[in-house]
Design a protein that fits this description.
Chain lengths: 254, 254
Amino acid sequence: MLETISSPAEWQRLPRTPGFSGKTVGLVPTMGALHKGHISLVNRCIKENDISVVSIFINPTQFNNSDDFSNYPKTIQKDRALLEEAGVQYLFLPTYNNLYKDGYVFKIIETDFSKKLCGIHRPGHFDGVLTVVMKLLNIIKPDRAYFGEKDFQQFILIKKMAEAFFIKTEIISCETVREDSGLACSSRNNLLKPGDKKIAPEFHHTLKQKIPTEETERKLEKFGFKVDYIKDLNERRFGAVSLSKIRLIDNVKQ
Amino acid sequence: MLETISSPAEWQRLPRTPGFSGKTVGLVPTMGALHKGHISLVNRCIKENDISVVSIFINPTQFNNSDDFSNYPKTIQKDRALLEEAGVQYLFLPTYNNLYKDGYVFKIIETDFSKKLCGIHRPGHFDGVLTVVMKLLNIIKPDRAYFGEKDFQQFILIKKMAEAFFIKTEIISCETVREDSGLACSSRNNLLKPGDKKIAPEFHHTLKQKIPTEETERKLEKFGFKVDYIKDLNERRFGAVSLSKIRLIDNVKQ
């Protein structure tokens, strides 16, 4: 039975209720519009913890583009059904005012890796991600938190943030889940126009080819992608592209 | 008996040892060179908590001036004796590498109040303060933490940071302790030249006079102070001055 928790205070009262003591808690932070990728995180979370919490919060501070924020897909009824079916116990559904009483004057920033890859193209994005994740970790205090490898840069930054600030939550990554076409599952895939949807899988196919990054870029541009970057770093190839302003990211081990 | 804890890991093992369970923990974060002001925080901490921890760490990231950092007084043997005498149980004495494994690439910043008053004159200072305090709070996990009102802007920022990031520690301020002359106790007072030490009490005397801030500034300059600012805010008058490059701050209720 999925229980909805709609404020930090409500969650913070729970550990004092019967049945909570000594149990491990896992958290899957999401922005909703749940897909197979999220569900794989949820399944692992359920397997590894006594209590599973999924948060849904479309975090405005991590959107550097207001259209991207307002167009972000919202499918809360469907999400709820998926979580119920998966066997999640708690849906954490805070409001902006719950999380940002300070009006986002307090931020976590990272001055090195967050300025590379997506950081170059989305100024302020990772400040918003790190800040909201820190808040969620401090509210829920999970033993483990789960993040998808599609957002590999995000995962690394969150893992290092937890270490830098002595947060005891184990930060765990799960392999990218893909559609049959090879396209990495993403909530933004729903926003692709039918024609673009057909081209989109070429992003992954081209990214995994063992050719120089410049050639990858040229190939993608020929398909009709606008390329933000293709870059090799720490034995991974990272890429960000867009089709009619819908931005897609992906990365593959080299 | 004062026990020294020299790494985060060492502290984190303690709660699992006998005698710790269910006890309240109080923290007084300091940079050492302890004086009557610190001891008043320590005494309150001891009174209100079962276990008292004092941290001593001269935090380089909050010094915007490298001379100020290298000249900061170090009196660890005397500090230890004072803490032992006061009845503190734990001295937390981490190294830079303990606290900043990340090399200070992760920071807490505040974009509003931290840019006023001292923030104008000490760029980056409050980033360093907030970052180190967040680390200390996350390591020690105290029920209460104590800060002096001499650093009123710092106290407000730390209190609001704890709220913004859902940190359960109660952030408590204690009234400024003054020398008989009225000069606010400060580790930096030890660095004043004998002639400057005689002038220094005029800072507090002039600050508390109910005259316009411009007149306060003029009076202080006549005494020989270099004035960073005198400013009224939220029913307090705040000031920062220096004598031969030794910086003093103070504030009074209006």
